Amino acid sequence: MGKRSRDDSDDEEEGPTKRFRHQNCTSAQPRAIIKVYVDGSFWKKENGERTKNMHCKCKRRAGYGIYFPESKRKNKRYYGRCPQKVQKSSDAEFYAITQAIRWFRTNDTRLHIFTDCLTAVNVSKQYQVWLNEQHKRKVHVETLFEEMQSCKYLPKLSFVRGHSGDAGNNKADKLARKGMRKGCEGKCV
């Protein structure tokens, strides 16, 4: 046997530029692709600012909105408050995406998730780079990818410009703001 040349080496990439690979991937096609729009909303009280239209005394709050435009289910809209660990707008976006995957993954469908958070779309394309470099978001990135890996068909994330007139994004935005305004049941932050 001779030496292995560079051309004989494995095609696998190594190191921080390695892209996320779906471990449960199948070669079969999904029965359907479900479109979903997600958005996150974040608010932080500034000094002296009144908390008008808020139901508690929180100093910061985040909400998520999820909208399924083509759903045959009675309820196409979902929203709520994000947990206290969500401290930034981008964290709320990650939380919304994760919730959409948790609630609506099925064995025979693929989710196509539209978000106005370019960070989330970039993270989905270069998972390992973000894990190594973005320590502040590491928990949210790991959670997102755990959910993505649990799907039979890897969800696709696409960027849609926020506040540009896209009907699905506008509905998700309204739902996220509604979720952000929900009371915190006495657990003010």
From TrEMBL:
<dbReference type="InterPro" id="IPR012337">
    <property type="entry name" value="RNaseH-like_sf"/>
</dbReference>
<dbReference type="GO" id="GO:0003676">
    <property type="term" value="F:nucleic acid binding"/>
</dbReference>
<dbReference type="InterPro" id="IPR050092">
    <property type="entry name" value="RNase_H"/>
</dbReference>
<dbReference type="Pfam" id="PF00075">
    <property type="entry name" value="RNase_H"/>
</dbReference>
<keyword id="KW-0540">Nuclease</keyword>
<dbReference type="GO" id="GO:0004523">
    <property type="term" value="F:RNA-DNA hybrid ribonuclease activity"/>
</dbReference>
<dbReference type="InterPro" id="IPR002156">
    <property type="entry name" value="RNaseH_domain"/>
</dbReference>
<feature type="region of interest" description="Disordered">
    <location>
        <begin position="1"/>
        <end position="24"/>
    </location>
</feature>
<keyword id="KW-0378">Hydrolase</keyword>
<keyword id="KW-0479">Metal-binding</keyword>
<dbReference type="GO" id="GO:0046872">
    <property type="term" value="F:metal ion binding"/>
</dbReference>
<keyword id="KW-0255">Endonuclease</keyword>
<dbReference type="GO" id="GO:0043137">
    <property type="term" value="P:DNA replication, removal of RNA primer"/>
</dbReference>
<dbReference type="InterPro" id="IPR036397">
    <property type="entry name" value="RNaseH_sf"/>
</dbReference>
<comment type="similarity">
    <text>Belongs to the RNase H family.</text>
</comment>
<protein>
    <recommendedName>
        <fullName>ribonuclease H</fullName>
        <ecNumber>3.1.26.4</ecNumber>
    </recommendedName>
</protein>
<feature type="domain" description="RNase H type-1">
    <location>
        <begin position="30"/>
        <end position="181"/>
    </location>
</feature>
